Amino acid sequence: MSRITPDEVRELALLARLALSEQEVARMTSDLGAILTYVDALRELDTAGVEPMTHAVPFDCPLREDLVAPSLPIDAALANAPRREGSFFQVPRIVPGPSGGAAEEDL
Amino acid sequence: MEARGASALSIAEGVRSGKLRAREVTEQFLDRVARLDGGLGCYLLVDAEGARRRADAVDAAVKNGSDPGPLAGVPLGIKDIFCTKGVETTCASKILRGFVPPYESTVTARLAAAGAVALGKLNMDEFAMGSSTENSSVKPARNPWSTAHVPGGSSGGSAAATAASLCTGAIGTDTGGSIRQPASLCGVVGMKPTYGRVSRYGVIAFASSLDHPGPFGRTVEDTAALLEVMAGADPLDATSIPAPVGAYRQAARAGREGGSALKGVRLGMPAEYFQPGMDTEVEAAVRAAIEELRAAGATVVPVSLPNTKYAIATYYLICTAEASSNLARYDGVKYGYRTGEARSLEELYTRTRGEGFGAEPKRRIMLGAYVLRAGYYEAYYGKALRARRKIADDFAAAFAQCDAIVTPTSPVPAFKLGERMADPLQMYLADIFTVAPDLAGIPAISQPCGFTKAGLPIGLQTIGPALGEEICFRVAGAYESRTDWHTRLPPEVA
């Protein structure tokens, strides 16, 4: 019995915004199942009272002076955009158009 | 000058003294790459024009009598995870194909300012996820000692290119072993410094609390010289450490002082890294190396790192959680690959990511999303963060009894292409001796310490306490000065 079902994999893929083929779902179900079984070894480790370690070295979040510094020009920031319009990144329509139509536009 | 086998510092010395011209050195290495890289797959991009421009600037500085920098004319390879302004940077992923960074990473900027000549961008496992460079979306890299074998990973291109003299040194990143394991498999030196010792600014993020940029070299001193330039506080990386940079080259040279180089140095040998059933050739070579260190004046003491067996599980829970978050930025909107047929924003995201990521990043995004889910978070991610502290505490306790810890870098020599691709867990276990220092954030160096009967390199790992880069270089320098493994050259395969 696998630790994770194909339906759980499909739901997780949706949350992670990953389109997976049915073949990928099958492979992912078996791979994740094996990895989750392996990491179960951690359960035997007693971690009661142990402080979680989120950072490798002790570290105070340093604050810099709040000064205006040069930033990327708009054209440089947009230069890698797959689609742009003027000074904007362009994506498919996400709100209904003036006619009340749905997201019909294919960009 | 003979380019094959040349050390970085011998080139810098020649260029600085006017005996060598950076442009000529650059042309020699570009020629080697053109002739020899076809069989090795180290380079994803060769920036010949940029390299010539940088070399000419170094030569002009020498001619004008100004200081061309400590790495004047040194030909370097850059793992394709470092953003290079105006030069395509893909992390060997389809999803970043065509991405031309509008800014430069701190590390590559510092190396250029020191006179180094970047020849191009090196192959790697996609998003640094892997231990063989077979997860590159472009092509696998191969081991120069045997092209049927992997160079290790994820910085496999960096290690293989350095070994094959397709550059004299390189930079990479180490999240679970990605500098040291390929250095071991390719017979070169690779150093992962303390977390925060080298700036991550402009390094494409995989697992931010574990990502360590670091150098590769043919010799310990070359590697130390690169780290001296790369290291130091950076206002652009809030996690960079403000402590002054150590005298790494001096530490590497101090190790050469004959029979007393390591007098007073206590080396810890952890039983957990010498288990029954380990590869006999690796074990014999590493034990012999430790005897050599004893002959150089060190005392060897047994130490224990009892939570070692939990390191791989801990690592994969933490790195996948961080990766799932870091890789959320690839959505087909701002840069890189975008699907051709999305009819909604939702579909734009899911199709772009489904088509753009390879199998291993998908696996890690999914696992990371799973362990961070409400209801599972404490059982998986929370547990792993606590286990991480126990693993780090093991090292702290061991360093109360010793100055450095010596182990094999990899439990096995290079494996064959394809051998571990079917089973992700088998691939993950390749990092069994390298992940714990990443979790603890402490420095560790790998250097060649022998060869198998089949002619594949074996690596020795020396681990130091936080900010203990100098003791790592001193031990490694001592070992190198007493042996000649680092002078061996792989066959030339045209």
What is the topological layout?
The complex is a heterodimer of chains A (107) and B (494).
Chain A: H1 6-15, H2 22-39, H3 74-78, E1 84-85, E2 88-89
Antiparallel strand pairs in A: 1-2
Chain B: H1 8-16, H2 22-36, E1 43-46, H3 48-64, E2 75-79, H4 106-113, E3 117-122, H5 156-163, E4 169-174, H6 180-186, E5 189-192, E6 212-217, H7 220-230, H8 248-254, E7 266-270, H9 280-295, E8 299-303, H10 311-326, H11 345-356, H12 359-372, H13 377-398, E9 404-408, H14 424-428, H15 435-440, E10 444-451, E11 457-463, H16 469-482
Helix pairs in contact in B: 2-3, 5-6, 7-8, 8-16, 10-12, 10-13
Describe it.
The complex is a heterodimer of chains A (107) and B (494). Chain A has a domain at 6-44: Histone, subunit A, CATH 1.10.20. Chain A is 31% helix and 4% strand. Chain A contains 3 helices and 2 strands; from the N terminus they run αααββ. A two-stranded antiparallel sheet of chain A has the order 1-2. In chain A, β1 and β2 (88-89) form a beta hairpin. The two termini of chain A are 43 Å apart. Chain B is an alpha/beta fold and 494 residues long. The longest helix of chain B is centred in the C-terminal third of the chain and has 22 residues, at 377-398. In chain B, α5 (156-163) packs parallel to α6, α8 packs parallel to α16 (469-482) and α10 (311-326) crosses α13 (377-398). Chain B is globular and about 70 Å long. Chain B is built from 16 helices and 11 strands. Chain B has 2 domains: 8-268 and 279-305 and 397-487, Amidase signature (AS) enzymes, CATH 3.90.1300.10; 311-385, no CATH class. The interface between A and B is large, with 56 and 75 residues.
